[in-house]
Design a protein that fits this description.
The complex is a heterotrimer of chains A (260), B (61) and C (151). By secondary structure, chain A is mostly helical. Chain A is globular and about 60 Å long. The two termini of chain A are 22 Å apart. Chain A has one domain: Four Helix Bundle (Hemerythrin (Met), subunit A) (Up-down Bundle). Helix content of chain A is 73%, strand content 0%. Chain B has one domain. The termini of chain B are far apart. A five-stranded mixed β-barrel of chain C has the order 1-3-4-6-5. Chain C is extended and about 75 Å long. The termini of chain C are far apart. The chains are: A mainly alpha (260), B mainly alpha (61), C alpha+beta (151). At the A-C interface, helix 3, helix 4, helix 6, helix 7 and helix 8 of A face helix 1, strand 6 and helix 3 of C.
Chain lengths: 260, 61, 151
């Protein structure tokens, strides 16, 4: 376990493993998303009140999950950076931020489009929507902070602190619908029975798209982290060996010949 | 087994009258997928090219 | 070295719990202000003044919806939290989910007679999704669940 974590902290190891994982990840993610979307758009039954409009749920809910997941990942990396000074943690935190920001945007846009016919408005300043918008600005703020500070080490530390402070907002988003009166409804209780509210026939496609989103997240995480690794380690011997040995094809999909 | 809920392609596209809300969300998701993959793949090429160019310069010196 | 790391860990925990505490206190102080609507009970307790613009939220009481005419005409209904009711009067477009037994949030103000003159009606959706078939069988199984006043 510790050995594994220690290895994960090595940029070279991360880069190599990333290349090995990526082809599988592409396949599985593509499959999950295609199945989930076709099922959700065409095969799950229309809602008794919202008709076909509720099919937005199959992207809205996974996007919300990704927003949370991205930020947990960034917070974990930030703590690892501040406590153990793991360089790789900062690389991953930097890679995840734009993905989280876009997932939050997808959640906000899909929610708005859902709200127009259902609620009768595309926006209301209730606790859920407001805290979600704040989360988008937290992501953007972290990205901006990093680009504003020239020294890489200071930028990493500042972003890590901001991320840990921003972590407070996640439970606020989560419980806003319970703590306050909001227009947004509470979380659904999924049921395993076919004959109750939120039955499997409704939520199974969301299960597929949800795992598809996780796959997409890790594809983005690996690609962006690998870029950052190449930039930071460009003077190291292993990067030289890597780029010189497979001169013909050094892009993302290529396998790596160097095991040294 | 789940059944296909629409009788025709036109009906599917119409989304029970909610086409203008459902489809833009799925299009935006497509953009999200592209955003996750394309910019990092593009910068990968640039980074690799830059490093290789530098390595070649250093070799020639 | 170990002591150094423990110190860092303490700093990280301090950041997390410090900001959580600070924001928690702010939210606690704002508690009422964050609510996006008042309930009929809060209104009947006189928490909102006449002429003041605010939102009321509740259920459209079963059997209380009166449409004065065709689409776009005046609608009247009772918004209820099962303890108290508020009469709401509104003219304008309604969201798809507006119907009896459905959650509603109305924006407007109280007139002299205590009627809520709404300028905008929003429908509140619950967290239950199901097909019409499942809904029908649920309704058949439990004859109209009676909501009761919790106070």
């Amino acid at each position: 376990m510790w050995q594994w974590l220690y290895k994960l902290g090595s940029p070279k190891w991360f880069y190599t493993i990333g290349n090995r994982v990526l082809p599988w990840l592409w396949g599985v993610t593509g499959l999950l998303l295609v199945v989930g979307i076709i099922w959700g758009l065409g095969f799950s039954p229309p809602d008794y009140q919202m008709g076909d409009n509720y099919r937005i749920i199959y992207l809205h809910v996974p996007a919300a999950g990704l927003m949370k997941g991205s930020f947990y990942m960034m917070a974990l990396c930030s703590a690892a950076l501040l406590i153990w000074k793991i360089k790789m943690a900062d690389i991953v935190a930097k890679a995840v931020a734009p993905i989280g920001a876009m997932a939050t945007l997808l959640m906000l846009v899909s929610g708005s489009l859902w709200g127009i016919p259902t609620w009768g408005t595309w926006w209301i300043w209730d606790a859920r929507l407001t805290s979600s918008l704040l989360q988008f600005f937290i992501f953007v703020g972290i990205i901006a902070l990093r680009s504003a500070i020239e020294s890489r080490d200071s930028a990493a530390k500042a972003c890590a602190v901001l991320t840990l402070v921003g972590l407070v907002n996640i439970p606020i988003i989560e419980y806003s619908v319970e703590w306050w009166n909001t227009l947004h409804q509470g979380a659904s209780d999924l049921s395993l029975r076919d004959s109750s509210a939120n039955p499997p026939e409704i939520w199974i496609p969301a299960f597929f798209t949800g795992f598809g989103f996780i796959g997409l997240f890790f594809i983005g995480l690996i690609l962006r982290s690998q870029n950052e690794i190449l930039l930071r380690e460009r003077r190291s011997q292993w990067v030289k060996d890597l780029l010189l040995t497979d001169n013909a094809k050094a892009d993302t999909e290529s396998g790596i010949n160097t095991n040294a | 087994m789940p059944e296909f809920q629409f009788n025709s392609l036109a009906e599917l596209l119409n989304m029970g009258g909610y086409a203008q809300y459902v489809w833009p969300v799925y299009v935006f998701f497509l953009l999200f997928c592209l955003f996750t993959v394309v910019p990092p793949a593009y910068s990968r090429r640039k980074i690799v090219k830059q490093i290789k160019a530098r390595l070649r310069r250093e070799e020639n010196q | 070295m170990l002591a150094h790391r423990q110190q860092k860990l303490a700093i990280v925990l301090f950041i997390i719990f410090g900001s959580a505490l600070a924001i928690g206190l702010v939210l606690f102080a704002l508690k009422e202000g964050i609510n996006v609507f008042y309930t009929p009970t809060e209104i009947s307790a006189g928490e909102v003044g006449q002429g003041q613009s605010f939102r009321v939220g509740g259920m459209v009481k079963m059997g209380s919806l009166v449409k004065e005419g065709l689409e776009g005409a005046e609608v009247n209904f009772l918004a209820t939290d099962f303890c108290n009711d508020v009469l709401v009067s509104y003219t304008g477009p309604l969201p798809d989910l507006f119907r009896e037994g459905q959650g509603v949030v109305a924006d407007g103000s109280l007139d002299n007679a205590g009627t809520f003159k709404a300028t905008q009606i929003l429908a509140k959706h619950d967290e239950n999704y199901m097909s019409a078939e499942v809904k029908a069988s649920l309704d058949a199984a439990e004859s109209a669940s009676i909501e009761v006043c919790h106070q």
